[in-house]
């Protein structure tokens, strides 16, 4: 489960191209860039179970950003 999930726009304008995301997974801090097409560019080492994590991040972004 992801803990302390945070996101913020990449630019002050808050329009696309994406968001900076960060969260903890298994006591490891993970950072990345979430793009409008759902792709993620990891700024830290990719997490274990990367595909499952991408799905969780996508669901959270749909809930918080695209509601």
Describe the structure.
The structure is a single chain. The protein has one helix spanning 50-64; strands at 3-9, 19-25, 28-34, 40-42. The protein has one domain. Helix content is 22%, strand content 36%. It is globular and about 35 Å long. The mean pLDDT is 90. By secondary structure, it is α+β, with helices and mostly antiparallel strands. Strands 1-2-3-4 form a four-stranded antiparallel sheet, with no helix packed on it. It comes from Planococcus maitriensis. This is YheE family protein. Pfam families: DUF5342.
How would the blueprint of this fold be written?
Layout: E1 3-9, E2 19-25, E3 28-34, E4 40-42, H1 50-64
Antiparallel strand pairs: 1-2, 2-3, 3-4
Give the rounded overall mean pLDDT: 90
Please trace the helix and strand order, writing H or E for each element.
EEEEH
How much beta, percentage-wise? Answer: 35-45%
Distance between the termini: 22 Å
**Which secondary-structure class do the elements indicate?**
alpha+beta
Question: Given the C-alpha coordinates, what overall shape results?
Answer: globular
Number of helices: 1
State the helicity in percent bands: 10-25%
Radius of gyration: 11 Å
Q: Tally the structural domains.
A: 1
Count every beta strand, where a strand is a DSSP E run of 2 or more residues: 4
* Largest beta-sheet details: 4 strands, antiparallel
Pfam families: DUF5342
InterPro entries: UCP037692
Protein name: YheE family protein
